[in-house]
Model the fold of this input.
Amino acid sequence: MEKQLFLLDIDGTICRGSALIPGARAFLQRIRQAGGQYIFITNNATRSTADYIAFFRGLGVETGPENYLTAAYATIRYLQEQYAGQAIYAMATDSFVQECRRCGLRVTADAADPAIACVLVSYDNQLTYDKIRDVCQLLTTREVGYIATNPDLVCPVDFGYLPDCGAICNMIEAAVHRRPLFLGKPEPAMVRYALQRAGCAPQQALVVGDRLYTDIACGRRAGVDTALVLSGEATMADVQRSELKPDRIYPSVTELGLAMLLAAPAATA
Done:
């Protein structure tokens, strides 16, 4: 097999909504059967690693903590380094907030807390207008840090798309004229953490995803080959318009899996 480590986006690449994309289970099995490794590097911060393990088990795919590096993980590491012991206001799901607290971060939902030093925004499927008001008030009236998990504009679901963290941040920017520091893809941190964890060199890895501006850009910034799948957000028209080109393009991971078979060395007698 040409590559030994596959760094996989989830939404739009392996799953769409709560279902596997056709051929995804066989693709993951093929990686393991060939002696390779895969790590999911996802900008979705609504689920913890434990949530993802349970989610994939329900789809018939057994994984462990070693198979995940999320934008939530990268964000928590940054907050631990920069805001340890300080109050953080989080616009995020309950699951992400609980994971932050388990990691020792002081997260609050009380925007009136005078100790708040940073505002954190994530994809939030429990979003309310009160949360939006709190974030805008904090960013307008106080000198606080401002970070966000990921710049994705949309999140694929079974009927199409929903606004993701990037779209939420764009809405906030229109009101307060501030942009956050994004910590997920396309920043290369997750890819670098994954290479370290797997003990692989960049040339042994392949980043696979459905977005040019996050997945493909992340691989490029980390010096890793990239494969775009057309099962999610990006289209061939997007590729033609973009200056950012993937190294490979496939309709889905099914075709990538077939290409892996063709690239495998022939069996010897």
